[in-house]
Model the fold of this input.
Amino acid sequence: MKTLFLILISLISAFAKAQTDIVLDTIYANDTKNVALFFPEPIRQGITGSDNFIFTYNREKEQYFGLLQAKPGKESNLLVINRNGTIFSYIVRYKKQLSKLNYFIPLSNSIGNEKPIVTDSIQVVTSEKNIDNRTYYYQKFCSYLLNRNQRIGRIKKRTQGIVLNVKNVVFDKEELYFVIQIENNSTMDYDLNFLNLSIETRQKGKKKSLQSLYQEPIYKYYLPSKIAEGKMVRFVYVMPKFSLSNDRRAILELNENDGERNIKLNISHRYINNPN
Done:
């Protein structure tokens, strides 16, 4: 009984230390523009710590985004809880001139959940720590790639004002990183249903056919749920490394939710086999 008590105390102390070690990102806002925050799940609750910051969201029908405004004053904090209990926390500050008006919040930015899972297995705790370290690396490397001005070729396709573009394919360690860009040059928002990557094989013989095999991403960085009219977004898919023979190619399929502005973009084997 005493041993069990000591284990529980140790786990509680470790959890408390982990919470104090979290460094919160800062979001800037002012009183002349709306700063939009897009979350991976619909917002159930959003609270600011000071009256000079206002966070508005649809309280009647849960939606994925909220709007932040600020008046001059001291910095505060913003706490957002998604429908599934995922918690996000940020420092918020007033800034007269804003360089960023839209934030696409990835799930990896969550600081926890309303109903934390408590485990009595030291082995599981260690495994989760390793997963967190790997996720942290993916996040930092993806952020680096988005800020890097590098292209692998002209891999682009468009339809009805929507442009799908693979800006870069990068190999690192055991993964391939696909830097993807979507432009919405239309006059209507684009609600993303799915963006899938698959490998297509051309079957030889008299009856030629195509066989497609879906590839599951290891990690998605900044994948949006909506691209507003006139806006452009960039994000990263992390895939297990693979190579392709001459008769195979990768297919990136963009599908619109409740719409028909769909795109299938062919990615030649030479880009996959010779990444940056």
